[in-house]
Write a structure and sequence with these properties.
By secondary structure, the protein is an all-beta fold. Helix content is about 0%, strand content about 50%. The protein has one domain: Jelly Rolls.
Length: about 160
Amino acid sequence: MLSEWASIDDRVMGGISQSEMREVDGHYVFSGTVSLENNGGFASVRSAISLANVKDDALVKLRIKGDGRRYQLRFRTTTRLDGVAYAVAFDTVENEVNVLSFRLREFVPVWRGRSVQQAPMLKWRDVTQLGFMITDKQQGQFALEVQEVTWGARD
């Protein structure tokens, strides 16, 4: 999977939430603390990725172990810090491994938590960043174990 992850938390807007993505026993763990202080409430990580050879009818599949909180899988088509992201939310069950699959059409273009009506349709070949985000406005620690991210044929 990916190796270099950048944390982009609500600190960019004055909040104090903190997150990181670290490798643990061959998996990645997105973890940290969400704080609502200073109008905070989100934490995220991103990594550069190239999906030039993935066909647009492919599904992205996640194998994750959750903590009972809601997360987002996000893709970006630019390397800029800010801008439109394509997001899909998913719920987790504490200490349960789940395999989730998503189609391109399930990703909603958003900018700072709001839908973007005129964004171009997402295509895998345009993706430059993959990320995870927690925006559930629930204060406290979180941890999402990302065991696998793959692209495969339609179900």
